[in-house]
Structures are given as C-alpha cells and as structure tokens.
Design a protein that fits this description.
CATH class of one domain: Alpha Beta
CATH superfamily of one domain: NAD(P)-binding Rossmann-like Domain
Shape: globular
CATH architecture of one domain: 3-Layer(aba) Sandwich
Radius of gyration: 21 Å
CATH topology of one domain: Rossmann fold
Structural class: alpha/beta
Number of strands: 12
Number of helices: 14
Distance between the termini: 27 Å
Strand order of the largest sheet: 9-8-7-6-10-11-12
Helix content: 40-55%
Order of helices and strands: HHEEEHEHEHHEHEEHEHEEHEHHHH
C-alpha cells in the first residue's frame, strides 16, 4: 500500500488518519478504499450574522461536516468555541464515524460548530446565533440525514432553540432532528451522564482484564466538567473507588485520602461551577499542576478535558495502569506510541466516551417512535452495548497483538468499509 498519511494540520485529524491507515493496511484494503474512507462526504461553511444586544451586527463563521452516512444518518455535536475551524470539525466528524462504528450503532460521523466565544454572549445573543445557524445548515440536516447534539459550550437549551427553529421551518414537530434536548421536549432520561457511565463501564472491564479489584482503586480525573464530574461521582458513589486528583481551568487538586464528590458538588454550587479555592477548604487538599495530575501514582487516569494532553514528552511519566479517554483526542501520536511501548492499557476515546452517542441513538429512536423509555431501560441497553463493544475490541487486540486503540479502529473501519462495499457506488 502507498502511504499517504497527513503530515500537518489538526492533531486529532492526524491521529485519526494514522490509525485509519494502519487499520486499512491490517484489513487488507487498497489505497482507493483508504481515500474513500478518509474523505468527508460533505463540508459546509456558512456565515452566521447576529444582531447583538447593542444593535450592531456581528458575523461568525459556522461549519458542519458529514464524514460518512454509509451506516446511517450523520451524527455529531455542535460546539461554540473561538478556535473552531473547518479542520477541527472535520477531525471530530471523522472520529464520530469510528465511534459509532465501534459500538455498532447505525450512524455515521458528523460535527458542527461556530467560531465564537459564546461565554461573552448574552442569553438572547446565543439564542439568535443558534437559530440563525440552524437555519443556515438546514439544507443538509434532518432526522434521517444528520442529527446534531450538544458539545463544547452548547447544552440542552441550545438544542431546544435548534429544534424549535427546525419545527418553525418544517411546520411540524420532529423530535428526532436533534438529541441532547431537555427531557420535557423529547430528550432521553440518562443522557446527561451517558458519556460518563460508558466510561465507568469501560473502567470496570479494563480493571477486570488486569485482575485489579475495584476496592481501593485510585483515580485521577483531568477536567471536572460535565463528563469528568459525572464520571467521578459515579465511580465514588456507586463503586468503592477513590478519586484522589481532579482539575478544571483553575488548576489541579490532590487529596490522598480521596475526595468526597458530594462535598465537591456543594462547593461547586457555591462557586458557580469552578474548583478555584478548593485547596483552601481543607488542609489535606493540595493544589498541584496539570502535569502533576497526569503523572499521579494512580490506578486509573481519566483525561476528560481537551485534546493533546498526553504527549511524547510526558507519556513515559504517566504512572496509571489504565487510561480511560473521556475527552476526544487527549493522546497525541507520540504519546500513543510511548504508552503502547510500555503496555499501558488505554481505552481509546472512540470506545471509552461512546456512551454519549449511544444514548443519543436511544433518544433518536425514541423521537422517531414518539415514545419514552424508562431510565432502567436506557441504563440496561447502554451497559449491554458498552460491554459488547469492549469485549469485541479486546478480543481483536489480543488476537492481533495490538493496542486497544488500533483494535478499535480495526473494528470500526471494517464495519464502515463493508457497508460502503455492500452499498456499492451510485451511479
């Protein structure tokens, strides 16, 4: 095979491309299939003009990428962030294709976003921006074409505005057109913590493979946002694991005796959601660096913040036995190679954090049927899918003598490629 790996651009896109090429080579596909799998089906860039509260008009750049619809409609979040670019959105859409493939749900990858610092906008400005963006990308979305969801700096309220805008254009309710909606508007029970619960299932399965008892397992969680916080609370509340290090944008904090996540939740309610000042609450809480958190002597490290945190420069200092990737792309290529050489068990992002898109799939199904499942139904179905996906990837990794990341890509790429080949080419 001729190797055509990208050598520049978004680190997540580069990592996805490297893993795609390796999977294609192992699966015996040719260069043409590699190019077909790599290339997004559709990329859209739109202008998003917004009338601000002061009456002035600002124009923001909006994006939506549909990487693949071979196995079903495109699926993926919408993020509001100043650093959103077409290349980043393409990388995330690509990862979504493999994420849906590895857990076997009938979606392909999509992603969208607006280049904006949404935290500087008023609620009214955010609403106007969301509604205009929804109108601008309306030609390529729909409950059987491309289903958006929340992502960075977007939430259930964002999806409610988006959903209402589409309803106004279509003239009828379509609760399957977006996921991550408020429950009262057709959102699924269990969606808010779905990514974290999927991570928890992966943690238990990984520890079992290493014959490590969950009793007294120590965990460091980088990124105490929605995903990291819910993961920490699940592991602390439902299992006898000990959360000894946590972090957010204000810094990292260490407690060798283990944090009480209920006390942390109370602290966050007082501070508006930030950990700043946590080290002043009790004398045994120590403020540490982010690098210190990543290299803590723990059983499990859960990077749940942003991409590119474990690199070739620090991977050899990571002491965790298991890494559960809650964020998208937290490990660079260099970091991956060093962790693999050290036989560190890494449950990759496309598997570890796939609980979110899995329950989004549940919400989509409920929306299509105009029917709501119970929380127990959602939890049971999620657990079954995560266990099956983990065991499948584990078996491939053992049979081929490769890392869980490479095995996950093999599983996902093979499923997508077989769907493409079976469909054939039109015309």
């Amino acid at each position: 095979m001729v190797h055509t790996v990208l050598t520049h651009g978004d680190p997540m896109l580069l990592m996805a491309d490297v893993q795609l090429e390796r999977a294609v080579s192992r699966l015996g596909f040719d260069e043409a299939m590699l190019d077909w799998l790599r290339t997004p089906e559709r990329k859209l860039q739109v202008a998003v003009p917004v009338r601000m509260d002061d009456g002035q008009i600002q124009v923001f750049d909006g994006f939506r990428v549909q990487h693949s619809t071979a196995r079903g409609p495109a699926k993926g979040g919408i993020r509001y962030h100043p650093q959103v670019t077409m290349e980043e959105v393409q990388a995330l859409a690509t990862l979504m294709t493999w994420k849906c493939g590895v857990v076997g749900i009938p979606f392909g990858g999509g992603k969208g976003g607006i280049s904006v610092d949404a935290r500087q906008l008023s609620t009214a400005e955010r609403e106007r921006m969301t509604r205009r963006y929804a109108a601008m990308i309306l030609p390529i979305i729909g409950s059987r074409r491309d289903i958006p969801a929340p992502d960075v700096d977007t939430d259930a309220q964002t999806m409610a505005w988006f959903d209402d805008t589409i309803t106004m254009f279509k003239g009828y309710a379509d609760p399957a057109v977006v996921t991550g909606k408020p429950v009262d508007l057709g959102g699924s029970l269990g969606r808010a913590e779905a990514t974290s619960r999927g991570m928890a299932h992966c943690t238990l399965l990984a520890l079992d493979k290493l014959n490590v008892d969950i009793d007294d397992v120590t965990i460091a969680v980088q990124g105490y946002g929605n995903v990291g916080r819910n993961y920490a609370e699940i592991m602390d509340r439902e299992f006898p694991a000990k959360i000894i290090a946590i972090s957010d944008v204000t810094g990292a904090y260490f407690n060798g005796d283990g944090f009480d996540t209920q006390e942390i939740a109370q602290f966050l309610r007082r501070t508006g959601g930030l950990l700043e000042g946590l080290d002043q609450e009790k004398p045994h809480i120590e403020r540490i660096t982010n690098e210190g958190l990543l290299t803590c002597d723990v059983d499990v490290l859960a990077p749940a913040a942003i991409e590119g945190q474990i690199t070739g420069a620090n991977a050899n200092d990571v002491r965790a036995k298991v890494i559960i990737e809650g964020a998208n792309g937290p490990t660079t290529i260099g970091g991956h190679e060093k962790l693999t050489a050290r036989n560190v068990l890494v449950v990759p992002d496309i598997l570890a954090n796939a609980g979110g898109v899995t329950v989004s799939y549940f919400e989509w199904v409920q929306g299509l049927q105009f029917h709501a499942w119970t929380l127990d139904e959602v939890a049971t179905r999620l657990e079954r899918i995560m266990i099956n996906a983990f065991e499948n990837v584990w078996e491939v990794s053992q049979n081929h003598g490769i890392s869980m990341r490479e095995a996950a890509f093999m599983v996902a790429v093979d499923r997508v490629a077989q769907a493409m080949l079976t469909r054939g080419l039109f015309p």
